């Protein structure tokens, strides 16, 4: 059965801390891995990773994929209260549907 | 706003009633997807269209669910004889498929369905 597992499920940190969110997957016909941020509404796109070992970076967020070990991490440095959200990891299967993990709920306290 | 739009944003209905949701994708996108998200879970794939053709349906999509995309633009998702277990957020996404090139799926704000 195809599955995407995220850890931790919940994380509470103080503003300014650095966090690492984990995503492991076992999905047939893997095409790419995506990270989304969800704040009480639609998931908003963060990154798409297709190749191993190439870090994608956007401001304080970065992500990398390891296709041999079947996992990805999302790093957020110097966290801010606006980073509080659910972070979703998803695998694009067969260039069509996304298989999502359960999400990591991140809370940043001031 | 040129993003994905969904209507209505919230729907409360009584068990046994039929409901219909609409999704308008980003205008140049030829693929449209429906997902369902329950509380505390990630979205689950329901079905997707390429232009007007429905190319895949999940086994989650019982015969009470039907989706259409008649002119390859907007799509509707209808649930007949709603059950309390249908209560969820229904998310629509769209993407541009260019034959072998994987593009990102962009999501709409969702329709939150509550079945009483």
Structural commentary:
- The complex is a heterodimer of chains A (110) and B (116).
- Chain A has 110 residues and is mostly beta strands.
- Chain A has no helices and 11 strands.
- Helices cover 0% and strands 62% of the residues of chain A.
- In chain A, β4 (30-38) and β5 form a beta hairpin.
- By secondary structure, chain B is an all-beta fold.
- Chain B contains no helices and 11 strands.
- Chain B has strands at residues 5-7, 10-13, 19-24, 31-37, 44-50, 53-57, 65-68, 75-79, 88-95, 106-107, 111-115.
- In chain B, the strands form 2 sheets. In chain B, strands 2, 4, 5, 6, 9, 10 and 11 form a 7-stranded mixed beta sheet that branches. Chain B has a 4-stranded antiparallel beta sheet with strand order 1-3-8-7, with no helix packed on it.
- In chain B, a hairpin with a 2-residue loop joins β5 and β6 (53-57).
- The radius of gyration of chain B is 14 Å and the shape is globular.
- The termini of chain B are far apart.
- The A-B interface holds A 4, 31-32, 34, 36, 41-45, 48, 50, 88, 90, 92, 95-103 and B 4, 31, 33, 35, 40-45, 48, 55-56, 58, 91, 93, 97, 100, 102, 104-110.
Distance between the termini of chain A: 41 Å
**What sequence of helices (H) and strands (E) makes up the elements of chain A?**
EEEEEEEEEEE
Count of helix runs of chain B: 0
Q: What is the CA-based Rg of chain A, rounded? A: 13 Å
Global geometry of chain B: globular
Instruction: Enumerate the spans of chain A where pLDDT stays under 50 for 5 or more consecutive residues.
Output: none
Largest interface: A-B, 24 and 26 residues
Mean pLDDT of chain A: 94
How much helical structure, as a percent, in the residues of chain A?
under 10%
């Amino acid at each position: 059965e195809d599955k995407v597992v995220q850890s931790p499920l919940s994380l509470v940190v103080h503003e300014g801390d650095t966090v690492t969110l984990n995503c492991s997957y076992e999905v047939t016909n893997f095409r790419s891995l995506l990270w989304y941020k969800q704040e009480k509404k639609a998931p908003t796109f963060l990154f798409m990773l297709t190749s191993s070992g190439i870090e994608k970076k956007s401001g304080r967020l970065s992500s990398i994929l390891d296709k041999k070990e079947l996992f990805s991490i999302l790093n957020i440095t110097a966290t801010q209260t606006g980073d509080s959200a659910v972070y979703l990891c998803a695998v694009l299967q067969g260039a069509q549907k996304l298989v999502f993990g359960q999400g990591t709920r991140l809370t940043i306290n001031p | 706003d040129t993003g994905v739009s969904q209507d209505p944003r919230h729907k409360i209905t009584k068990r046994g009633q039929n409901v219909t949701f609409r999704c308008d994708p980003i205008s140049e996108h030829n693929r449209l997807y429906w997902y369902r998200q329950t509380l505390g879970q990630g979205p689950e794939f329901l079905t997707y269209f390429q232009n007007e053709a429905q190319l895949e349906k999940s086994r989650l999509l019982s015969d009470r669910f039907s989706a259409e995309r008649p002119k390859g633009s907007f799509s509707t998702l209808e649930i007949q004889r709603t059950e309390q277990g249908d209560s969820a957020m229904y998310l629509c996404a769209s993407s541009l498929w260019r034959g072998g090139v994987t593009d990102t799926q962009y999501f709409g704000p969702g329709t939150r369905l509550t079945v009483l």
